[in-house]
Write a structure and sequence with these properties.
- By secondary structure, the protein is an alpha/beta fold.
- It contains 21 helices and 25 strands.
- The strands form five sheets. An eight-stranded mixed β-sheet has the order 2-1-11-10-12-13-14-15, with helices on both faces. It has a seven-stranded mixed β-sheet with strand order 7-6-5-3-4-8-9, sandwiched between helices.
- Helix 1 packs parallel to helix 9 and helix 8 crosses helix 9.
- The protein starts with 12 loop residues before the first helix and ends with a strand.
- 49% of the residues are buried.
- The structure holds adenosine-5'-diphosphate.
- The site of adenosine-5'-diphosphate has 23 residues, from strand 14, strand 18 and strand 19.
- The site of adenosine-5'-diphosphate (ADP) has 23 residues, from strand 14, strand 18 and strand 19.
């Protein structure tokens, strides 16, 4: 027997309709790419998004066509999203931090018809234009006055929507219609597209609105620092209008000072970003004796949150941290570390240990932990295995069936993460499956060691990788980037780890490096580090193969010049630093530093690496 309730397709246009109807005057504030702060409302965004829909139709965009955005978080970007999705076209978010050749691959694979772009990215598009012939129109998210001639034939967004009518019907199609497309960063193989449906986005929005998940409310002011091009800004461009929260969009300025300014001037109560952004904010606040007078809660995910960040926010600024885990394939929120009743009854310090875990599953996410033979593993908080997920906003297959069948017989998707689950259902990531260090048949969690090492007062960043070892297969190597002006020794770091990790997890060596490369989504790029360290010989490995003296005296570890990037042109570097751009600059420094670090260099040469 079928139920007799209304058939009301779960399409995302209804979210903005709702915001217009019931929170129409609520503000959306953006730091525009042109510079000034721009204020608008949900009602105005709704009207302009409708104009976007008509403009796209006039450009020949039909339902199912892919329309890309290469843009920062701004009100215009939100208009473009809803304008695209409302007519059944597919909004494909492009990550500008990818290398040009990856962007070309992704744009062609997705068969994008139109690209909305911020002024910032015109040089990138001008450089690759010949290689993306399927793109028929470029729309610059600005006005005629700023258009310039970098991308001949590009259309000015403001002119385009001014000329379009706001009279268009949204929705009216099946809720399983594709709404969004986002490619994973492709750390293994080519990037793969995750194709969200209206239904999956709508359900993800409902779930993340829950008090134990993001828990934002109409009274909140929300600053999504996490970019809309990185896993949909964790759904905030849907959930904020859904609840009627004020939205503050940071544009391209994601450094500590700019984020702090917006937090304070706009009265932000809730924000979300990856740990590196918060690290920069805390450093800025400490250096300037800044305060956070309105911020109550931050959600941190994308990579594991270091304890020092949770304590810093709590003890110095009275801000509560919610640690969350997810991936492009889970829309993206998968778990969040909000306490259940038993944990809430514990003292603060015990609760903090649960906050550092990635947390528990909300309704709509099923989790399981299995070994390599697919056998279920116990939820004892210490046995680690492969983490698998299922649910209505978890990927079923990749776009164009890349990778074939990606679900197991029970319909679960293998996240590629290695994790534990405890008796409270709290999941803790111990590693990416490909980063886990296999030593003597046992697994060592690289993340656990690097998180502890990153908590050393002298450390700015730490990374641990497995390095080949003739006896144990692999042994851990700890790389440390010290804070400016600090000096340290291998012994100091090994002592710091003592008692905090099992003895056999102790890194075989510590190397001090000028920089630790981050990938396109601000995470430590282990693949690149492994690649650069592939000739590195551990002192212990040298000893165990004999000829200790000769091998131990092998050249200092070298860090190789970064791969060529089209982003190394002037325009890219002129941007206000965001974590990754800072990285681009430091990579060039590493490149020049690497020359100093030739084997002939004197022992005290200041190069990218110093060995204690
Ligand atoms: P990528 O950054 O590779 O494009 P995602 O943004 O989808 O892809 O990243 C998903 C991965 O990021 C997860 O599978 C997990 O390994 C890692 N991750 C996300 N959140 C956390 C977290 N809170 N702690 C540890 N790792 C995390």
């Amino acid at each position: 027997m079928q139920g007799l309730m209304q058939d009301w397709p779960l399409t995302v246009d209804k979210i903005l309709d709702h915001a217009k109807a019931w929170h129409g005057g609520r503000e959306v504030v953006s730091r525009s790419v042109e510079g000034p702060i721009v204020r608008t409302t949900y009602a105005a965004i709704h009207e302009r998004a409708k104009r976007v829909s008509n403009a796209l139709k006039a450009l020949g965009v039909a339902p199912g066509d892919r329309v890309a955005t290469l843009a920062w978080n701004t009100g215009r970007h939100i208009e473009a999203w809803y304008g695209i999705m409302g007519i059944g076209a597919v909004c494909h978010t492009l990550n500008p931090r990818l290398f040009a050749e990856q962007l070309v691959y992704i744009i062609n694979h997705a068969d994008d018809r139109v690209i909305f772009t911020d002024l910032t990215f015109l040089p990138i598009l001008a450089a690759i234009r010949d290689q993306i012939p399927g793109v028929k129109h470029f729309v610059v998210l600005s006005d005629e006055a700023h258009l310039g001639d970098q991308l001949p034939g590009a259309l000015a967004y403001e002119t385009l929507i001014e000329q379009a009518s706001a009279d268009v019907a949204w929705g009216g199609f099946d809720e399983n219609t594709a709404a969004g497309l986002c490619y994973t960063s492709g750390t293994t193989g080519n990037p793969k597209g995750v194709l969200y449906s209206h239904r999956s986005n709508f359900l993800h929005t409902l779930v993340t609105m829950g008090g134990d998940v993001l828990g934002i409310r109409a009274t909140d002011t929300v600053l999504p620092v996490v970019p809309m091009f990185h896993a949909n800004a964790w759904g905030l461009a849907f959930s904020a209008p859904a609840v009627g929260a004020k939205l503050v969009m940071p544009g391209q300025k994601l450094d500590g000072a700019s984020v702090h300014e917006l937090l304070e001037t706009e009265g932000v109560t809730f924000s979300a970003a990856v740990p590196t952004v918060w690290q920069m904010l805390l450093q800025h606040l400490r250096a300037t004796k800044g305060q956070l007078t309105t911020l109550k809660r931050v959600v941190i995910g994308g990579s594991a949150v270091p304890e020092s960040i949770v304590r810093g926010f709590r003890d110095e600024f009275g801000v509560d941290v919610t640690h969350a885990w997810g991936m492009t394939e889970t829309s993206p929120l998968g778990t969040q570390a909000t306490p259940n009743a038993a944990i809430a009854a514990m003292d603060d310090e015990t609760q903090l240990q649960f906050k550092l875990k990635q947390g528990r599953a909300p309704l709509g996410i099923e989790l399981k932990l299995v070994d390599d033979a697919e056998k279920d593993l116990p939820h004892d908080g210490s046995t680690f295995g492969r983490l698998k997920v299922a649910g209505p906003f978890v990927v079923g297959q990749y776009f164009k069936s890349e990778g074939g069948n990606i679900l197991d017989d029970a319909g679960f998707f293998d996240t590629g993460d290695v994790a534990t689950l405890d008796e409270h259902g709290f999941m803790q990531i111990t590693d990416r499956a490909k980063d886990v260090i296999k030593s003597g048949g046992e697994w060592i969690s690289s993340i656990e060691i690097e998180n502890i090492a990153a908590g050393h007062p002298k450390a700015e960043l730490a990374a641990v990788i497995g390095v080949a070892h003739p006896k144990w297969d692999e042994r851990p190597l700890l790389l440390v980037k010290l804070k400016a002006g600090e000096t340290s020794t291998k012994e100091e770091f090994l002592q710091f780890l003592e008692g905090k990790i099992a003895k056999w997890w102790t890194p075989d060596d510590v190397a001090f490096v000028e920089d630790i490369p981050l990938g396109a989504t601000g995470k430590i790029d282990k693949k690149l580090i492994r690649d650069r360290m592939k000739d590195y010989v551990l002192p212990t490995a040298a000893a165990s193969v004999g000829g200790a003296v000769a091998l131990a005296a092998s050249p200092e570890p070298k860090i190789y010049a970064p791969e060529h990037s089209d982003h190394d042109d002037g325009a890219w570097l002129e941007w206000t630093p965001s974590p990754h751009q800072t990285l681009d600059r430091t990579q060039s420094q590493v490149q020049s530093g690497a020359k100093l670090q030739s084997p002939e260099a004197p022992a005290d040469a200041v190069g990218p690496f110093r060995r204690s």
